[in-house]
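re: the backbone from monday

yeah here it is again, tokenized this time
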């Protein structure tokens, strides 16, 4: 049996798709197509990781339609809505970083390459299929896209997340010219 600490969070089951047990899942990853050939995925149910998967069809914006083995009715499928999905770390694509790396980072200082310190990391959020870093700057919510080119480094020893925000984005929040 796989344990969560040997896996990464791939996404979650968002809703029913039809009435014959298919489900819509959200793959919280930069490149959902990398997972179009999955043979199984672990569903976290009742605090256990249970392997499931019959087929997967990747759609747009990180969504996919799945059918799980032995889940063939709407009633059975409803039990899985909201469950998290996991894969073993060894299947993580090369150079990819699991979103679960952001678990436990709440309170880390976020520093921008240009602006310097911009606030404290709150959480990774999903806004219509787009993953964003939610940052608190003195009570103001700052949202930065979670994309490889914007996240430069996570230093767990110093508790710092170093970013290079897109040009002009931080000006919207701070109303300042870049230095």
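seq for it, each position gets an aa:
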């Amino acid at each position: 049996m796989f344990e969560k600490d040997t896996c990464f969070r791939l996404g979650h089951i968002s809703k029913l798709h039809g009435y014959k047990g298919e489900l819509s899942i959200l793959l919280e990853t930069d490149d959902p197509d990398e997972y179009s050939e999955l043979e199984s995925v672990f569903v976290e149910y009742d605090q256990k990781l249970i392997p499931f998967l019959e087929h997967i069809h990747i759609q747009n914006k990180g969504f996919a339609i799945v059918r799980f083995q032995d889940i063939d009715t709407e009633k059975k499928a409803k039990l899985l809505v909201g469950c998290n999905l996991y894969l073993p770390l060894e299947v993580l694509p090369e150079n990819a970083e699991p979103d679960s790396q952001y678990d436990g980072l709440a309170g880390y200082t976020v520093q921008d390459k240009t602006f310097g310190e911009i606030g404290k990391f709150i959480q990774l959020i999903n806004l219509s299929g787009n993953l964003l870093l939610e940052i608190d700057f003195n009570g103001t919510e700052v949202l930065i896209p979670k994309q490889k080119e914007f996240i430069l480094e996570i230093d767990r020893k110093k508790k710092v997340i170093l970013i290079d925000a897109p040009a002009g984005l931080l000006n919207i929040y701070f109303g300042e010219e870049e230095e």
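The longest strand covers residues 116-127. The CA atoms of residues 53 and 128 lie 24 Å apart.
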